[in-house]
């Protein structure tokens, strides 16, 4: 038996496998039906069709038995062939899924590596943000790890006075702030300005000791 899925160019799908399994089930049903015929006749697959004297038995339907035995033989060959098709289809399907999974994992690994290479380590962490403050409106969150705060970055950061000086000189001017948040790079624009609370930001930043 050669199904439409035997072409090397066609992509095997789960529907193809389901169709093959349905054909297998149909063949098994036919084989069972022919075995039932033989059982009704009381001869089975190997039982003799001649009597003790070598004459054709008169107590059974010889034509029906021979037809059933022949069809069982043919159907068993078909069954063997379709089982091989199912095995090959499942192998191709699993191989393709495995290749896709490995490709996705490799791409995710490369992306993570690229992010590690391109993003510098953080030098400070946000440990408090007041509601309604400039920092809050800009999107800064507790736990954010700062890699860039205006002109201050990992390379030139020495202490919190660096950030305080940038803030004082940038009142009313937007500063680009870059943070790590749950492993992702997040950029925002933060404008130091007067508000109802203390300072120009409304957040507390602490250095990260490396």
TrEMBL record:
Residues 72-116 form a coiled coil. GO terms for cellular component: cytoplasm; nucleus. Gene3D superfamilies: 2.30.42.10, 6.10.140.1710. The keyword Coiled coil applies. It comes from the Eukaryota. Keywords: Chaperone, Coiled coil. One of its GO terms (biological process) is proteasome regulatory particle assembly. The keyword Transcription does not apply. Residues 104-183 form the PDZ domain. InterPro entries: Nas2_N, PDZ, PDZ_6, PDZ_sf, PSMD9. Interacts with PSMC3. Part of a transient complex (modulator) containing PSMD9, PSMC6 and PSMC3 formed during the assembly of the 26S proteasome. Belongs to the proteasome subunit p27 family. Acts as a chaperone during the assembly of the 26S proteasome, specifically of the base subcomplex of the PA700/19S regulatory complex (RC). During the base subcomplex assembly is part of an intermediate PSMD9:PSMC6:PSMC3 module, also known as modulator trimer complex; PSMD9 is released during the further base assembly process. This is 26S proteasome non-ATPase regulatory subunit 9. It comes from Seriola lalandi dorsalis.
């Amino acid at each position: 038996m050669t199904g439409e899925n035997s072409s090397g160019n066609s992509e095997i799908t789960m529907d193809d496998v389901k169709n093959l399994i349905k054909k297998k089930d149909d063949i098994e049903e036919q084989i069972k039906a022919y075995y039932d015929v033989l059982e009704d006749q009381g001869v089975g697959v190997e039982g003799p069709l001649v009597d003790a004297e070598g004459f054709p038995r008169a107590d059974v339907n010889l034509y029906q038995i021979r037809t059933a035995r022949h069809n069982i033989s043919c159907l068993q060959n078909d069954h063997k062939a379709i089982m091989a098709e199912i095995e090959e289809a499942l192998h191709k399907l699993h191989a393709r899924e495995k290749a896709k999974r490995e490709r996705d994992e490799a791409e995710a690994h490369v992306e993570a590596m690229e992010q590690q290479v391109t993003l510098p380590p953080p030098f400070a962490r946000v440990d408090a943000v007041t509601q309604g403050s400039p920092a809050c409106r800009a999107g800064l969150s507790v736990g954010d790890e700062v890699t860039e705060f205006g002109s201050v970055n990992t390379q030139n950061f020495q202490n919190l006075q660096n950030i305080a000086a940038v803030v004082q000189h940038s009142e009313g001017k937007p500063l680009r702030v870059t943070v790590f948040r749950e492993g992702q790079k997040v950029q925002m624009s933060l404008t130091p300005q007067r508000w109802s609370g203390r300072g120009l930001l409304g957040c507390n930043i602490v250095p990260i000791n490396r």
